[in-house]
């Protein structure tokens, strides 16, 4: 039987998540992760209500418990960030006077370079889809947009037909924080999108209900990021050289190939929708590492 305190705790967490959702700052995936983090913290409380138990001592105890459980530093950093955001919300809604989570330091996390594909590996995935079928054409168009525009999976499923102009070859995207940006698209991507849009009505229901998004399922509903992951996985499965690629791999490849070919960092930042230039700079590390590897492999003294 669920206790009254537990019901109140659950309600507090869900109210917090609801406020995040309608604040239009966090993605659904982020909110889902925050919810899971808070329920783990609640389990650690062992029956104590989450607001009165939101103390520096309890938070540090939870962090020690999670460290002992063996989670990596990135996951631990996210959990502490979750507690900081939750603490701010408790203060803003009058449930607490101060936010003790701000006194807990984030662990140091090693810089992790994102994976990317070479151009021929991208093409191997793109050409794995059977564009003779409507489903294959849609799947090819999805991956074309991930790579041709550098979109996140959540962005790709949300863009509407009105956002796309294949004549002018650009797309308006609404990204994190509800920020809008314009992305130029290459001609091959626009050509595939036009072919898909011509056959898109085949997937719409007879009642005329149309979500308006560029991509729809075989039953006419809006796709979600999980659908995109499955679409990418099906192409990667038949493209051996692209093993392990995810939707985000194509975004990383987009940025890396732009920088490899001379694009300036600020323009790439704008196209990716990064709030900070430092986030985009990680891709310069990829190109430098490639140059170093080429030097080590080819120069007579590269292995000295």
How many beta strands in the DSSP annotation?
3
The ordered H/E elements are: HHHHHHHEEEHHHHHH
Low-confidence parts lasting 5 or more residues at pLDDT below 50? 1-5
Count of helical regions: 13
| Major β-sheet strand ordering | 1-2-3
Rg to the nearest angstrom? Answer: 23 Å
Oligomer: single chain
How widely separated are the two ends?
A: 69 Å
Can you give keywords for this protein?
single chain, 304 residues, mainly alpha, DNA polymerase, domain 1, hpI Integrase, Chain A, 2 domains, 4% strand, disordered N terminus
The gist of it:
With 304 residues, the protein is mainly α. The protein has helices at residues 4-22, 28-45, 56-69, 73-92, 119-126, 134-149, 153-158, 187-199, 225-237, 247-260, 265-272, 277-280, 282-298, and strands spanning 164-165, 170-174, 180-184.
What does this structure look like?
The model is unreliable at about 1-5 (pLDDT under 50). By secondary structure, the chain is mostly helical. The radius of gyration is 23 Å and the shape is globular. The chain starts with a helix and ends in a 6-residue tail after the last helix. It has a three-stranded antiparallel sheet with strand order 1-2-3. The protein has two domains: about 5-105, DNA polymerase, domain 1, CATH 1.10.150; about 120-245, Intergrase catalytic core (hpI Integrase, Chain A, Orthogonal Bundle). β2 and β3 form a beta hairpin. It has helices at about 5-20, 30-45, 55-70, 75-90, 120-125, 135-150, 155-160, 185-200, 225-235, 245-260, 265-270, 275-280, 280-300, and strands at about 165, 170-175, 180-185. The chain is about 55% helix and about 5% strand. α1 packs antiparallel against α2 (about 30-45), α3 runs antiparallel to α4 (about 75-90) and α6 (about 135-150) runs antiparallel to α8.
């Amino acid at each position: 039987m669920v206790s009254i305190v537990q019901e109140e705790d659950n309600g507090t967490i869900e109210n917090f998540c609801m406020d995040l959702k309608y604040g239009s700052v966090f993605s659904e995936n982020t909110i889902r992760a925050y919810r899971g983090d808070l329920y783990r913290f609640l389990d650690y409380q062992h029956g104590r209500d989450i607001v009165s138990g939101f103390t520096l001592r309890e938070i540090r105890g939870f962090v020690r418990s999670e460290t002992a459980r063996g989670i990596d530093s990135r996951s631990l950093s996210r959990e502490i960030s979750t507690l900081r955001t939750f603490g701010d919300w408790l203060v803003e809604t009058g449930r607490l006077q101060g936010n003790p989570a701000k006194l807990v330091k984030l662990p140091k996390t090693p810089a992790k370079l994102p994976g990317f594909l070479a151009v021929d590996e991208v093409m191997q995935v793109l050409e794995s889809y059977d564009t003779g079928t409507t489903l294959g054409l849609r799947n090819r168009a999805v991956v074309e947009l991930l790579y041709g525009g550098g979109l996140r999976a959540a962005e790709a499923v949300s863009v509407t037909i009105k956002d796309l102009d294949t004549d002018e070859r650009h797309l308006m995207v609404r990204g994190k924080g509800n920020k809008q940006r314009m992305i130029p698209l290459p001609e091959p991507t626009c050509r595939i999108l036009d072919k898909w849009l011509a056959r898109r009505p085949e997937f719409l229901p007879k009642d005329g209900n149309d979500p308006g998004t560029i991509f729809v399922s075989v039953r006419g509903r809006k796709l979600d990021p999980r659908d995109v992951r499955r679409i990418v996985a099906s192409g990667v499965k038949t493209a051996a050289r692209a093993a392990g690629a995810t939707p985000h791999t194509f975004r990383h490849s987009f940025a890396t190939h732009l920088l490899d070919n001379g694009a300036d960092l600020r323009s790439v930042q704008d196209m990716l929708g990064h709030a900070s230039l430092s986030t985009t700079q990680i891709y310069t590390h990829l190109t430098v590492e490639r140059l170093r590897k080429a030097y080590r492999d080819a120069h007579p003294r590269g292995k000295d």
